[in-house]
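Batch manifest line 336
LIGAND: NAP
JOB: complex structure
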Amino acid sequence: MKRLYNLILVCLLIITLSACGKQTRTDYLADKVSEQHIQTESAEVTEQAEQEQQPQGGDNTMMGAISFNFETKSVLLNSGYEMPIYGIGTYSLTGDTCVESVTAALSSGVRLIDTAYMYHNEESVGEAVRNSGVPREEIFVITKLYPSQFTDPETAIEEALEKLDIEYIDMMLLHHPGSGDVEAYLAMEKAVEDGKIRSLGLSNWYVEELEEFLPQINITPALVQNEIHPYYQENDVIPYIQSLGIVVQGWYPLGGRGYTAQLLGNEVISEIAQAHGKSSAQVILRWNLQKGVVVIPGSSNPDHIQENTELFDFELTEEEMERINALDRNEKHDWY
Ligand SMILES: NC(=O)c1ccc[n+]([C@@H]2O[C@H](COP(=O)([O-])OP(=O)(O)OC[C@H]3O[C@@H](n4cnc5c(N)ncnc54)[C@H](OP(=O)(O)O)[C@@H]3O)[C@@H](O)[C@H]2O)c1
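JOB STATUS: finished
ARTIFACT:
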């Protein structure tokens, strides 16, 4: 009897110990998972810190909260969407010229297209996109509402959707500040909620304008598009915008029509271009990218369009960047 009692006691002891063991193992596993989590988090933090320390123009260029990925040639917007860091601008391209230019760009691998109500070419851009054979989701189309449309933004948004006829608009900007701009932006926010537009932005908004505008809206713009070229560099504005987690895109990257010869013929730029075996246009575009500025050069020449995509097989040195930075003349080539 006593032996049986002892046997039961031993069994109970084994069961208790094994339960304790299981508990300990579970705890151990939980600890392990949490340890791994901490390790992953710290790896991410280290990776982020490393990325922040990377020289400009490496695989990633960190600018404030903005990171350009030079491998995928894209940037992750604060809206959660990925946008290419180079594209084609369509100002002054209309009708067949616009269709042909955008078609050539898409054939050259360009996936970012900038248009606007004011360019009178949204139909042509849409036509080129639809007929390109490139899957819609691979193309990123930006259009803009003009201040004259701010009084009835809902109708203006519907008009843009209809003219483009590409299911949805990747990004819509307010073309420049004007009466009713806050209401127009709020209408664009509603269109984001409705799935008609994916990301929002502003154009020709500078520090003061942004400080006044941002507290009045709900969705932080994903992008600000402003005039930026070696003669008008906006070196005070760019870091401010980037520090807000907003991507900067430059218009008139080559100085705009009527000024390109001056910029492309600039001695410093030509010298740097020669050293790299690249064109002046490519050097200017690369300088923008290394500053964390997205480029949308305009062109109707297929050779130029192709040339403007070949920006990733060379890198400007810090000294070359500085030499171009020193060309700033605060010389605006358009009024807004
Ligand atoms: N938000 C705004 O207020 C605003 C204002 C202006 C512009 N934008 C946008 O910014 C885009 C860019 O501006 P933009 O097109 O007016 O000016 P841009 O890109 O500075 O210059 C365009 C001029 O550069 C020439 N070009 C292009 N690539 C070239 C190359 N590789 N070599 C030599 N020449 C070259 C083009 O001629 P070819 O046709 O002969 O190549 C064209 O004459 C516009 O298209 C528009 O989408 C926005």
